[in-house]
């Protein structure tokens, strides 16, 4: 049995077969775990078809898949109630969601961020983790593990990452506060700070080309990372191998963040 054998949990954020969430789900499945999924709904149902297609590539023809727009409390309530009634309890939650208005994700545009763009970015990309942590004890009576995805731009200024960097700083610190408060329920909360990956969300960031270039030239391993590398660390954090690890931000960035040039 793999390290995720007997474990079932929610994976959010699968959009296509390039999404970080897709690579995470793949590693969970390969390690013997079971994934249930949520997606951001749209009126025409285009998103659901797309997400179903990506999950099918993971080998699941008939997945448990429910809409959840993380800016809606009602959606969270529906999802968690449905999980409780369909499964009773689960073992993990993967948060792999972020959004910011691309107009403000350009080098030099941070100081022009509007109140609305700021609130939207922080609500969707950071508050959503808190909203999950708030509801987690209801579906994790025996404890569990929650992870989310961050980026180095939450620690240091990365031109173009802008308000998303502020949201990632909030996400990483939300991880620590949640880890502390949920610790007595045996629920662990950690974040993976992943290197740049060619996804739809990444394409909204002005300056992403430099991020890939810097990563290749300046990281300790002198290369970009593969989605499956974050996926493997995710499987570790969600498994009992990481039973003593909580409140951490673990870099899966080929040693980029330790370099000071
Ligand atoms: N790609 C990178 O370079 C990189 C690097 C480090 C961290 N990350 C983080 O990884 C996570 C996943 O992003 P990705 O790069 O795989 O891109 P992606 O575009 O594949 O995934 C982003 C997901 O967020 C979802 N989403 C956006 N707004 C939502 C909302 N209101 N409700 C529900 N879902 C919503 C999208 O539907 C999509 O599934 C994000 O937190 C991102 O910041 C990405």
Provide key terms for this protein.
single chain; alpha/beta; Rossmann fold; 7-stranded parallel sheet; 8 helices; 7 strands; 14% strand; globular; binds nicotinamide-adenine-dinucleotide
What can you tell me about this protein's structure?
The protein is α/β, with parallel strands linked by helices and 261 residues long. The chain has one domain (8-252): Rossmann fold. 43% of the residues lie in helices and 14% in strands. The protein has 8 helices and 7 strands. It has helices spanning 20-30, 46-57, 73-87, 115-139, 162-182, 200-203, 208-218, 227-238; strands spanning 8-12, 34-39, 65-67, 92-95, 144-150, 187-194, 249-252. A 7-stranded parallel sheet has the order 3-2-1-4-5-6-7, with helices on both faces. Strand 4 (92-95), helix 4 and strand 5 form a beta-alpha-beta unit. Helix 3 (73-87) runs parallel beside helix 4. The longest helix has 25 residues, at 115-139. The protein is globular and about 50 Å long. The model has no long low-confidence stretch (mean pLDDT 97). The structure holds nicotinamide-adenine-dinucleotide. Nicotinamide-adenine-dinucleotide is lined by residues 13, 15, 19-21, 40, 68-71, 96-99, 124, 149-151, 194, 196-197, 199-202.
Set out the fold topology.
Blueprint: E1 8-12, H1 20-30, E2 34-39, H2 46-57, E3 65-67, H3 73-87, E4 92-95, H4 115-139, E5 144-150, H5 162-182, E6 187-194, H6 200-203, H7 208-218, H8 227-238, E7 249-252
Helix pairs in contact: 1-8, 3-4, 4-5
This protein binds nicotinamide-adenine-dinucleotide (NAD).
